Amino acid sequence: MIGKIGRRLLGVSLLAIVTGCNQTDKTTDLGVSSGQQAASQQPAVIQGACPQVYLREGTAVHRTYAKGAKDDPQKLIYQATLAATTRQCVQTANELKVTVLAQGRIVSGPAGNPGAVTLPIRVAASDGENTLYSNLNKFSVTIPAEGTAQFVFTEANIVIPGGAGSYAKIYVGFDEGPYNTK
């Protein structure tokens, strides 16, 4: 008897779950379903008008030497390189929000030790001669005991004017200049 009641209760419960999953979107006064209305309020992710990301010549490699040494391979503390980049854009009514990622590698030199180092990575966006965005980041990377590691640098919420996407270029690279020049 209890088994029969349990099966009926299970059957009614499953029916209630299936019925709840099959609800349709309710139509608003404008004839647009609530699901469509919510989707239209979300910013669109677009790649077609998303500016390309470039490694500027001469900025893809960063070397740090022991004090007083320059270009002496035996005094190299570490070398960092940037190799690959990508981006994602979200279009709003007036602006394009870009997230930039750069993949890199750090290698300890003969004068180096394991530990945390700070890399100066600049992200800049330009539209011809006009600088639309520029920011120099202090990016922390840890050199492990093995002496080499990969890292991924990310900078989100880069905001440029909405119509600049197809003409703008974004650059990523190492830079020793002043920080925070947005």
From TrEMBL:
It comes from the Bacteria. This is Lipoprotein. It comes from Rhizobium subbaraonis.
